[in-house]
Amino acid sequence: MISFSKFNIFGDQILKNINFYANLKLYKYYHNRVIDHYENPRNVGSLDKNNKNVGTGLVGAPACGDVMKLQIEVENGIITQTKFKTFGCGSAIASSSYATEFIKGKTLQQASNVKNSEIAKFLKLPPVKLHCSMLAEDAIKSAIQNYKNKNN
Fold this sequence. Notes:
The protein is α+β, with helices and mostly antiparallel strands.
């Protein structure tokens, strides 16, 4: 009879090595800001979508499968609270996280003028991941439009 306990220890070490090298690869290709917002995302969660002061934007990219929900809470024309939930790659999560931080405290007009290039430039996204910042811009605009529709 073969004891698999010896192989399990060996297997665990292999998994640790794979994770170590995968993280090295991640750090090689992505700027520290992307990694920070991916590993420590800000404003994750949901707001009450039935609250008239909350606007919700839900956008997706069929090509890569990323889906982003971004919510804003507005008081006296100022975005006071933001939340997001994203299903997607690390760059999509980082873009969502940074977008919620970036628009907090801005007026609706200021937030509606945010461009994906500002998000991409801050995070230093590689060209192949620019669609993630475009999703974040679309989510912001969609949340603002939803808020306006509820309040007009």
